[in-house]
Amino acid sequence: HAGDRVSYRISLPFQQTLPLRAWIHDAGSHDIDWQLRSSEAEISLDQRLAAGDYELTLEASDDDALFRLQLLTTESADLLSAQGTHGQLANAHEAIAYRYAVEAAGEHRLQITTASDTPVQWALYDASGQLQHVGDTLDFAAPSGLADVGELTAGHYILLLSAVPADEEDNAGTAGAGIDFDLVLSPSTVQP
């Protein structure tokens, strides 16, 4: 019901790599407002979370409110190899995180191939939680596409991958079937 509130306690044993806006992935919510607080203050969307205890409060803004939030832990995310990976988004609302290590600075590109025409979106963050590149497969003429992500310095990165909601109504609807994908993130001089 509108105005209903619920709170959850979240304990983090270590600092998060992603800023709050990426760490809490909206997996199909509608008509909710949420905030995260430490014992001292509300956490801003651009802030990375330190180890500690937090309170996540959700409030319904409509009688038909629904929340589906996914917390993305990147420390246990799979490491992308130079050969890439095959994976699956379990449904159209899920997100998945991968770690990527850049040995030497240079231009990089991302190739994504999906088994269907369902578009996916991605975001690439550096080790300090700064967004480096975003994109989607909406402009690809086929279920496979190649995107230049530009110059990456040596270091560690996090790649987030999720489905592109068709519209707001779809985002709140059923999650649908899984999305099989292959992806390669590599230096531009190497063929994926």
In round numbers, the mean pLDDT is 87
What value does the Rg take, in angstroms? 18 Å
Q: Which geometry do the CA atoms define?
A: globular
Structural class: mainly beta
- Report the helical percentage: under 10%
- Widest beta sheet: strand line-up: 6-8-13-10-11
User: Would you report the number of β strands?
Assistant: 14
Low-confidence stretches: 168-174
**CA(first)-CA(last) distance:** 50 Å
Written as H for each helix and E for each strand, in order along the chain, the element string is: EHEEEEEEEEEEEEHE
Give the amount of beta strand, in percent.
Answer: over 45%
Summed up, the helix count is: 2
Query: Major β-sheet, in short?
Result: 5 strands, mixed
Can you walk through the features of this model?
By secondary structure, the protein is mainly beta. The protein is built from 2 helices and 14 strands. The protein has a 5-stranded mixed β-sheet with strand order 6-8-13-10-11, with no helix packed on it. A hairpin with a 4-residue loop joins strand 10 and strand 11. The longest helix is centred in the last third of the chain and has 5 residues, at 168-172. The radius of gyration is 18 Å and the shape is globular. The chain starts with a strand and ends in a 5-residue tail after the last strand.
Task: Tag the structure with descriptive keywords.
mainly beta; 2 helices; 4-stranded antiparallel sheet; 192 residues
